[in-house]
Specification:
Chain lengths: 251, 480
């Protein structure tokens, strides 16, 4: 459980850190997140030189490579503005692991400062923007998968569901074993594909059993995994990043 | 199906992938574990009720950290106080030495039959095989251990050794090995096993047990159990040998209640266990029962090497509740035997590499999605996910080299891949053109992606990257 976090008042400007998965596979989710923030009157700065937070190398044990990649990102956020990340996984990497990664190096203070300014998107929308949403969509049943990093590493089990609850026409469906991992785990899905497959099979079954027509998640790794499993089975149930879902229904 | 018709199955951590494949394809294993783990998770959750669990975990962690911080002096204090109580203390550097000490203690009494309470340390050092090779029969008296031993298996869980078996399988084992009726009547089977074991308690020359908490200030050995077999093992035979890892020591008697409260709830969801034994020495002159001699064997077996490293040290906080495996989505699906190690699941994956070396256990630290469920429930707040990552680092030669077999997983191909990743991610211009190109050509992602696409469709790079979308978005905004 993350320690109690004190939230700042709504700022004029924020940095947006898109993450590599959003950049390459789900860019619309990134753009929709930016639009949500801009609609709240916040100017969103997207540092062009951002690439990847370094997590894939970090969790694979390649500490040196992870640190070099992370170091190249540390310098992107010169001003004292919050850094918004549309992922609990990359957000957790930056918020929790950057200080560990740079402990005892010359960049330790900078890493700590950056880490302290990192907010996951749904966290920021709930606790800092106090987002209000006007639901313009049709009535719909939706399931939510909160990533393990958002839930446990960042302590954000509630922020996604809280945002969905602001959509008047949307019914959030409870799934069995909601807190259980979908089986993505980055390189885990590659190193232990059969175990990962068994996990995502159970997750898709649990989501399908809710009767929801759609699932949303705040992490693109889970989206790729769960959505890819549904698509492989040629199910009509589809997934979407929560930023796109919120923007689509409220714009 | 009769289990004894099958050849005795052996498991090794070297074959983790094959064993996982087999377990995933075994509906019986899948169902048994899923059902058992679901039940244990619910029980644990309900047992803490409205307690301030975070504060209690903090307390548990602090007690264990304090004990570890003073470990060398507490062990000396424990030895002195045990000896003052009449408990003879022995030190074993590894499992082999511990086995030898115990065998010699048995031989000195001319012991032929040993009855055992549940002890994972004795599993760790393969004590039963060692004693049997010396012509001493060692019989397990914990019901789960008894079944596993009858079935020529090893425990699949540290608290519930026979959790991989369902009622029908247990009925078959008892029928085939001990001649009981085939039945689904659990009470009948328990009563049958109890009466079989009762005779053996009476006939045993030596009782061997584990230890849950060894209290330094009083020289007391605490043993937590539910079946009474622990009390019988430690009270009926003329000699009792307790065997434990050196990390099980706590400083004060008052440290025990919080740890016990955490242990019983985390393990089985019980507020108290049926038995809580406090052993403080052999039978005294005026007493009519209890063993005439009590020995304590303190086993290192790699623990003092773990102790040298300030990160890995956290591994030794463990109080062996098993909650990490009960909550692990990987353990739940592959079961305990798949790991091929004495301690399975998350705690095994951070402990066994120190005991067996990374050559044999290199696939264990990676067998986790780092979902964090283990760390979240650990009653003494061991940062298990961080330690898994640390061992991944050690396996590829990026750690401090404090684990046997460090660097065994490093290979040129993977290093080259991560170096390329590093280069691309630290050259933003190349990153932008590379990712943009990937979307246009879809070249990074073929429609077949090894095992990923056996179960899922391949992710497709979008036609336009976020970088490019934002360029357009900025232009639109400045045009308005």
């Amino acid at each position: 459980m993350a320690p109690v976090k004190l939230y700042p008042p709504k700022p004029d400007k924020v940095y947006f850190y898109g993450t590599c998965l959003v950049d390459i596979f789900f860019p619309q989710a990134g753009l929709d997140a930016i639009r949500l923030l801009e609609r709240e009157g916040i100017e969103v700065i997207f540092p062009d030189d951002q690439t990847c937070c370094g997590q894939p190398a970090y969790t694979s044990g390649y500490q040196t490579e992870a640190r070099e990649v992370a170091r190249s990102q540390l310098g992107l956020f010169e001003q004292d503005w919050p850094i918004i990340v549309p992922s609990g996984s990359c957000g957790g990497m930056m918020h929790t692991h950057y200080p560990q990664l740079f402990a005892g190096t010359k960049d330790e203070a900078l890493a700590k400062a950056v880490a302290g300014r990192v907010f996951e998107l749904t966290e920021f929308l709930v606790h800092v923007c106090r987002l209000k949403l006007e639901d313009r969509g049709e009535p719909e049943k939706v399931a939510m998968h909160t990533s393990c990093s958002a839930r446990r590493e960042m302590g954000l089990a509630e922020t996604g569901p809280m945002l969905l609850s602001k959509l008047g026409q949307v019914e959030l469906m409870e799934q069995e074993r909601a807190a259980e991992c979908c089986g993505f785990g980055g390189t885990f899905a590659v190193r232990h594909p059969e175990i990962s497959a068994a996990m995502v099979e159970d997750k898709t079954q649990a989501i399908e059993a809710t009767g929801a027509k759609r699932f949303v998640t705040s992490d693109c790794g889970c989206l790729m995994n769960i959505g890819g499993r549904f698509e492989h089975q040629e199910k009509t149930l589809t997934g979407e990043h929560i930023a796109s879902y919120l923007w689509r229904r409220s714009s | 199906m009769s289990m004894q018709d099958d050849a005795v199955q052996t498991f090794t951590p070297r074959d983790f992938h094959r064993q996982a494949h087999d377990a995933l394809g075994n509906p019986q294993i899948r169902a048994n574990f899923r059902k058992a783990m679901d039940g244990l998770m619910t029980k644990r959750h309900d047992s803490f009720g409205d307690w301030d669990l975070e504060t209690l975990r903090e307390l548990g962690a602090n007690i264990r950290m304090r004990a570890l911080a003073k470990l060398p002096e507490l062990l000396e204090q424990l030895e002195a106080n045990c000896q003052a109580n009449g408990i003879q203390v022995h030190w074993a550097e590894d499992g082999e030495e511990a086995c030898r000490i115990i065998r010699e203690l048995c031989e000195a009494r001319g012991a032929k039959a040993v009855i055992k309470g549940k002890s994972m340390v004795s599993e760790e050092m393969h004590l039963n095989e060692h004693l049997e090779a010396a012509g001493i029969e060692a019989l397990e008296s914990d019901l789960g251990e008894y079944l596993v031993q009858l079935n020529q298996q090893t425990p699949s869980h540290i608290i519930m050794p026979a959790i991989h078996l369902n009622t029908d399988e247990i009925s078959d084992i008892l029928h085939d090995k001990t001649g009981t009726e085939r039945t689904r009547d659990v009470d009948y089977m328990t009563a049958a096993a109890r009466s079989q074991l009762r005779e053996r308690f009476m006939a045993a020359d030596v009782g061997i047990s584990g230890v849950n908490f060894a209290v330094a200030e009083t020289g007391t050995l605490c043993l937590v159990e539910n079946e009474g077999n622990g009390r019988m093992t430690t009270a009926v035979p003329p000699m009792h040998i307790a065997v434990t890892g050196i990390e099980k020591v706590v400083e004060h008697l008052r440290d025990v209640p919080p740890l016990y409260a955490l242990l019983s709830r985390s393990a089985t969801g019980q507020h108290v266990t049926t038995y809580f034994n406090m052993i403080s020495g052999p039978r005294k002159a005026q007493e009519h029962d209890g063993p005439q001699a009590v020995h304590l064997v303190l086993v290192d077996n790699g623990r003092s090497r773990i102790y040298q490293d300030d990160e890995l040290l956290d591994t030794l906080r463990c109080i062996r509740c098993g909650a990490c495996m009960n909550h692990c989505p990987v353990y739940t699906r592959v079961g305990g035997h798949t790991y091929g190690t004495t301690y399975p699941g998350p705690i095994g994956s951070i402990l066994m590499p120190h005991m067996l070396g990374l050559e044999d256990t290199k696939d264990l630290p990676s067998a986790s999605s780092l979902c964090g469920a283990c760390g979240e429930v650990c009653p003494v707040k061991i940062p298990i996910p961080d330690l898994l990552v640390r061992l991944r680092r050690e396996a590829v030669g990026e750690g401090r080299g404090n684990v046997p077999g460090a660097g065994v997983k490093r290979n040129k191909k993977e290093v080259a891949a991560w170096k390329s990743f590093q280069w691309l991610a630290t050259h933003p211009g190349a990153w932008r053109s590379g990712t943009a190109m990937a979307g246009k050509l879809n070249m990074l992602m073929p429609s077949k992606l090894g095992s990923w696409t056996d179960h899922r469709t391949a992710p497709k790079p979008a036609k336009t990257t976020l970088h490019a979308l934002i360029k357009r978005h900025r232009k639109q905004r400045s045009d308005v």
